[in-house]
Amino acid sequence: MMDRRVIWSKLAQDDRKRIFSYWNNRNKSNLYSRKLNRLFKEAIRLIIAYPNIGRSTDIENIRVKIVSDYLIIYEIKEFEIVILTIWDSHRNPDILHQIMGKNESSTTKND
After folding, report:
1. What is the CA radius of gyration of the chain?
2. Element (H, E) at 55
3. pTM score, two decimals?
4. What digits encode the pLDDT tens for the residues 59-91?
5. Which of 26, 44, 66, 87 is deepest in the core (most CB within 10 A)?
6. Domain 5-109 is of which CATH architecture?
7. 4 phi, psi to nearest 5 deg
8. Is there a contact between 35 and 11 (Cβ–Cβ < 8 Å)?
């Protein structure tokens, strides 16, 4: 089976930048951000290899992969995996439900 390509939504790109910025500022170092980035990349490699690895949701083709204190929320398409958001599990889940109710159409290819 051919690997699906990864598409990052604008929201997911912004989430990742915000997460790294937060930890860089909090720790006065980028070491933890680099560790998280490695964990995110490894999780996405697993998602590409095994798209159904994440927990299913109430929304068809949307799954959740837990990485540390974060949730990678992604959509499985025929030829793509769309990373919709990276959610801090400490945040209010009602906000996540509102976000997931919106149609996030701005995506970019992950080269």
Report:
1. 14
2. strand 55-56
3. 0.82
4. 899 999 999 999 999 999 999 999 999 998 777
5. 87
6. 2-Layer Sandwich (3.30)
7. -80, 150
8. no
Phi-psi region of 28 (alpha: psi -120 to 50; beta: other; left: phi over 0): left
CA distance 90 to 93: 8
The long-range contacts involving 35-42, CB below 8 angstroms and separated by at least 24 positions, are 36/67, 36/68, 36/70, 39/67, 39/68, 40/16, 40/67, 40/70, 40/72, 40/86
30-63: pLDDT as tens digits: 999 999 999 999 999 999 999 999 999 988 999 9
Distance CA 49, CA 61 (A): 16
How many other β-carbons are positioned within 10 Å of the β-carbon of residue 80? 15
